[in-house]
Structures are given as structure tokens and as C-alpha cells.
């Protein structure tokens, strides 16, 4: 029975994503699939013409679509379902960029012995940096502050 519910959620997410895209008056089409590794439903949006518009400045639009879609699904099923919206390989490129940044900052910390702050990262971006540097023997990471003022610090162990 639980298996059927998951399939139903994937179908529901895809249906709602396409309805949302239609309301946005875009020609983009969404497809959804279960992402077992991240315990989420992944929504891939295909649209070459309006790709930049759908991603938005620093991913603002894609993140907003993800948030709204999450609220729509919660309203339908009565529980929170983790949804990851991606356009092309934008999220993968962002993740690789953050991992590279994390490694560069870790090297700077090792060379200087001084802590290095990273500002303006979302919770998801901070998580990627924390995970990337979690295996490092010489540096550690810590999130400091609250709400929009929260930032990440890479520092020597």
C-alpha cells in the first residue's frame, strides 16, 4: 500500500508542477521521479527558451517554484514531501561550484591558519559545504547566526 502512495505522490507532483508552469504562462514541461538517495521527489523542467527566466537571478525563481510546489503538494496530501526542482543540470552545476569553493576556502584556511566566513549561502548551500568538508582532518565548519544573518565559517581544527 505504501508503494502505491509513493507512486501517487510522484504523479501528483508532476501534475501540480505542470499546472504551476501553465499558470506562469510558460511552455515548459515538468516530469517527476522518486529520488531515493535524497528521500525526495525530483522535478525536472524542460524548456530551452525560457531556461534563464525559470532559473532566475541566483536561482531565486527555481527556488520559489520549488517552495510553492512543496506547499501545493502538502495541501493535497496533508504532509510535507521533499521536492527538488531542477532545470537541465543547473543544480548539479551549482553543487559542483559550491564544492570547489569549499575546497578552495579549506586550502586558504590551512595555509593561513585563519577562519574564513562564507556569507549569503542558503541552508541547502551551507549543507553542501558542510558535507564536502566533513572528511577534512585539518578544518571544520560551523554555521553561525540566525535566520537571514546565518553564515558559515571554515576554520582550523
Strand content: 15-25%
Going by CATH, the homologous superfamily of the largest domain would be K homology (KH) domain
Radius of gyration: 18 Å
Please estimate the helix content: 40-55%
DSSP helical segment count: 5
Write down the overall mean pLDDT.
92
Tell me the major beta sheet.
Answer: 3 strands, mixed
Along the chain, the helix and strand elements come as HEEHHEHEHEE
* CATH top-level class of the largest domain: Alpha Beta
Q: What global shape is seen?
A: elongated
* Terminus-to-terminus distance: 48 Å
Uncertain segments: none
**Strand-pairing-aware structural class:** alpha+beta
Whole-number count of domains: 2
Named CATH topology of the largest domain: GMP Synthetase, Chain A, domain 3
Strand ordering within the main sheet? 1-2-3
According to DSSP, the number of beta strands is: 6
Q: Give me the CATH architecture of the largest domain, please.
A: 2-Layer Sandwich
Provide a descriptive summary of the structure in words.
- The chain has 157 residues and is an alpha+beta fold.
- It folds into 2 domains: 2-88, 2-Layer Sandwich (GMP Synthetase, Chain A, domain 3); 93-156, Ribosomal Protein S8, Chain: A, domain 1 (2-Layer Sandwich), CATH 3.30.1370.
- 50% of the residues lie in helices and 22% in strands.
- The protein has 5 helices and 6 strands.
- The chain has helices at residues 2-23, 51-55, 60-77, 90-112, 123-133; strands at 29-35, 40-46, 83-87, 116-118, 139-144, 151-156.
- The strands form 2 sheets. It has a 3-stranded mixed sheet with strand order 1-2-3. Strands 4-6-5 form a 3-stranded antiparallel sheet.
- The longest helix has 23 residues, at 90-112.
- It is elongated and about 50 Å long.
- The protein starts with a helix and ends with a strand.
- The model has no long low-confidence stretch (mean pLDDT 92).
Amino acid at each position: 500500500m505504501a508503494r502505491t502512495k509513493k507512486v501517487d505522490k510522484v504523479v501528483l507532483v508532476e501534475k501540480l508542477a505542470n499546472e504551476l508552469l501553465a499558470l506562469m504562462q510558460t511552455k515548459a514541461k515538468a516530469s517527476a521521479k522518486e529520488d531515493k538517495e535524497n528521500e525526495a521527489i525530483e522535478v525536472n523542467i524542460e524548456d530551452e527558451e525560457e531556461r534563464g527566466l525559470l532559473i532566475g537571478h541566483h536561482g531565486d525563481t527555481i527556488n520559489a517554484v520549488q517552495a510553492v510546489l512543496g506547499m501545493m503538494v502538502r495541501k493535497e496530501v496533508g504532509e510535507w514531501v521533499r521536492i527538488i526542482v531542477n532545470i537541465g543540470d543547473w543544480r548539479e552545476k551549482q553543487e559542483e561550484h559550491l564544492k570547489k569553493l569549499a575546497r578552495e576556502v579549506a586550502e586558504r584556511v590551512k595555509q593561513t591558519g585563519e577562519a574564513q566566513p562564507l556569507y549569503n549561502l542558503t541552508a541547502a548551500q551551507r549543507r553542501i559545504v558542510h558535507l564536502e568538508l566533513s572528511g577534512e582532518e585539518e578544518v571544520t565548519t560551523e554555521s553561525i547566526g540566525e535566520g537571514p544573518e546565518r553564515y558559515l565559517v571554515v576554520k582550523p581544527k
